Amino acid sequence: MKILAIESSCDETAAAVVEDGRRVLSDVVASQIDEHRLYGGVVPEIASRRHVESISGVVSRALSEAKTDIGGIDAVAVTYAPGLIGALLVGVSYAKGLAMISGKPLIPVHHIAGHIAANYITHPGLGPPFLCLVISGGHSHIVEVSGYTEYKVIGRTRDDAAGECFDKVARVLGYPYPGGKYIDEAAKRGSRTAFKFTHPKLSGNEYDFSFSGLKTAVINLVHNAEQRGEEISCDDVAASFQKTVADILGEKLSAAAEALGYKKIAVAGGVSANSGIRTKMKRVCDSLGAELYLPEPKYCGDNAAMIGAQGYYDFLAGRRADGSLNAVATLSLEDISLGGGPK
Ligand code: KG4
Ligand code: ZN
Fold this sequence. Notes:
By secondary structure, the chain is α/β, with parallel strands linked by helices. It has two domains: 2-116 and 300-337, ATPase, nucleotide binding domain (Nucleotidyltransferase, domain 5), CATH 3.30.420; 128-298, 2-Layer Sandwich (Nucleotidyltransferase, domain 5). The protein has helices at residues 33-37, 44-65, 85-102, 111-122, 162-172, 180-189, 212-227, 234-260, 275-288, 305-316, 333-336; strands at 2-7, 12-19, 23-31, 75-81, 106-110, 130-135, 140-147, 150-156, 264-268, 291-293. Helix 9 (275-288) links the parallel strand 9 and strand 10. Helix 5 (162-172) packs parallel to helix 7 (212-227). The longest helix is centred in the C-terminal third of the chain and has 27 residues, at 234-260. Bound molecules: 5'-O-[(R)-(carboxyoxy)(hydroxy)phosphoryl]adenosine (KG4) and zinc ion. Zinc ion binds at residues 111, 115, 136, 270, 302.
């Protein structure tokens, strides 16, 4: 079954053709990041306008690179939540129009479910149940993936998402937006033990995260050094910060996997491209005797192939949308877990 997938939840206009949820026949991503970088972050109004300009060309390219046309497609999948509402609406409207004129089924896909499904592309043998750490620009979750369309979020960030924290620390160190990958590069040159940052102590759910205290500690460190006129090594700050994030994520994931007995662990989302975090997760899984699944780097960030992968399983579960489908800015994975979400 061939699915044409469309993704426009943030600053990437993307389309892909995916066969049977696992085989990527084409994968086109038009990034707007160079424009948003000028403003130090994504400007929603600009994002929507660029999606409108790009979407036709991106979808046409995805179809032609897959050596097909809309007639050779079995269904259209689209990210409808969560994300920037104006950006989502472009993909949703385009997909609705395409599904309507072609008579193909329309499948509404949750963006975070898509990030998780990126692992199905990279690891053809992976299937639920498994435990997944989702770390993106907007989310940090530990999710029990008990079926292809069944999720239980057992831990979440109480403040900043992991990616948001990387981007804010990167900004104070003078790197362009989004700064996660620059921190990753700098960390390779720096000392992980140059600075010691404490781990947050949280009451309540032991699998929840908090990154705002760490972010503030790093920002204060840099500002205090500046005020005293002292040189501070960005590489050392980046390496020590990244190690702290990796340790916090590793601790929580390890505790959850051990308590719940998972031997299959996946990581997903833009921050899963981070080399320090990938190494840490490998160590965590080795010590648990668990198998680790990581998306290949090109499927860590936003793309439509992951939406096509998840769209296939959503289709098999009977999830469909009609012309009344709307975009939703905020929607928990649990709300679309089998039985919930649009019919
Ligand atoms: O999943 P994603 O592409 O978009 C959202 O759904 O939010 O994640 C984007 C985030 C940004 O915060 C970006 O800085 C971060 O992923 N990121 C990284 C790396 N590559 C991207 N963070 C740390 N290390 C990286 N190598
Ligand atoms: Zn994303």
